[in-house]
Amino acid sequence: MKQFMQLEAVKPRSLSWPLSATELAELRAGEAVLLSGTAYTARDAAHKRLVEALEKGQELPFPMAGSLIYYVGPTPAKPGQIIGSAGPTTSYRMDAYTPRLLAAGQRGMIGKGRRSPAVIEALRQYGAVYFAAIGGAGAKLAQAITSAETICYEDLGTESVKRLQLHDFPAIVVIDSLGNDWYDQGPKAYLESQNDLDTQD
Amino acid sequence: MREIAAADITETVRRLCLQGAVSLPQDVCQVLKKARDAEDWPPAKQILDTIIDNDEIAAASSVPICQDTGMVVAWLKVGQEVHINGDLTAAVDDGVRQAYTQGYLRRSVVSDPLRRHNSGDNCPALLTTELVPGDRVEISLSLKGFGSENMSQLKMLKPSDGRQGVVNFVLNAVKQAGPNPCPPIVIGVGIGGSFDKVAQLAKKALLRDLDSVNPDPYYRELEQDLLRLVNQTGIGPQGLGGRTTALAVMVETFPTHIAGLPCAVNINCHVSRHLKEVL
């Protein structure tokens, strides 16, 4: 309840990626944020390749240390557009790969939906954070992307890895570095507020 | 016998796909706004505001509402007195191909489920044809996203499970899905028929307008009860808490065997892109 009051009263916190370990540790599940800085896109097929490259000891297409990965497969950009529609895809499909990437230095990810206990444990272990963006709001979210450049795996089409510049990209901290999960706490806080109302009646 | 050119079907499918990807149907917009007004949890209301804002931006700037522009579900009711000049399946796929390759929509279909090479043109469509009396062709399309499709479930319930068994199964499916299918969701429920038929019923339910009701009062009440119970789970918009977990529950039924009670739950997200046109 307290966290919710804060969520309502305080404006979204502006964050400039990369974040220091201290800044990452300060973020709490349920907080609304505006993300700026560099993010890399990767979803199912790109994750598979990134982890295969790590296993083979090959060089990665972007520096994993401190990185922010956005799970998105955008629609193609029309001429003159930076990017097409670009909302988050469901994150659990990346669960098999995420602990390995966190071990390699990744410190943030943007997606939507629940994560496995192994991912939550890895977020705690490495002091990293899982953000959710609003699924099905790809037209609006694209407005917070100021540049997009394909850097590898071009053959994967929409699943290629792109370097994005974000500017005030709206997201919510869902799992923080302590392992708090807003997918548990948010609905619980709402239901408790309903029970409070019932008692008042 | 009325003649309909395959090219007319292609053109209709093309136009509906292009329109559906960027412009949410009026019934969905209205139900979303009603839900926003009824939402009593401020963070949830804010999310619904953002979703409505996104839908307006998409329509105004012709940018897809969601980057998952879906796999195309095409449900054709073909009048028995119609003769189609040309290949119907190819005509539907041509419409999909033209829309997705020329319209900057995402090609999300792999041509083989295990070897997974992108087909490059979002084909094939998931085509169902139904023969009906008359001399018209009704084309219903859904641009079906898979974040929600993946959260769908089917179960062969026992006759003794009854109405309560159906209610429990739907609620469990919604709870297990949680935030993954991008709530607020739209729920299509199939009851009866057989293993394959019941899945089709659930899909058919998702093609209905969100403000439509089952013509049978018994099932209309079941739809209302299910919607109320789903919206008491607390899952809320995006699974972050709130009242609005679902926008609508639509039930379709079919007679079944004395030994069976098949039940299917097909989940759609708030970007419920369903369109219909009659030729």
Describe this structure as you would to a colleague:
The complex is a heterodimer of chains A (201) and B (279). With 201 residues, chain A is an alpha/beta fold. Chain A is built from 7 helices and 7 strands. In chain A, helix 3 links the parallel strand 2 and strand 3. The longest helix of chain A has 19 residues, at 182-200. The two termini of chain A are 19 Å apart. The relative contact order of chain A is 0.20. The model of chain A is unreliable at 1-7 (pLDDT under 50). Chain B has 279 residues and is an alpha/beta fold. Chain B folds into 2 domains: 2-22 and 65-144, no CATH class; 147-271, 60s Ribosomal Protein L30, Chain: A, CATH 3.30.1330. Chain B contains 8 helices and 10 strands. In chain B, the strands form 3 sheets. In chain B, strands 4-2-5-10 form a 4-stranded mixed sheet. The relative contact order of chain B is 0.20. The interface between A and B is large, with 48 and 47 residues.
Low-confidence stretches of chain A: 1-7
Give unreliable regions of chain B as ranges: none
Estimated share of beta-strand residues of chain A: 15-25%
Oligomer: heterodimer
Key terms for this structure?
heterodimer; A: 201 residues; alpha/beta; five-stranded mixed beta barrel; 7 helices; 7 strands; 24% strand; globular; B: 279 residues; 60s Ribosomal Protein L30, Chain: A; 2 domains; 8 helices
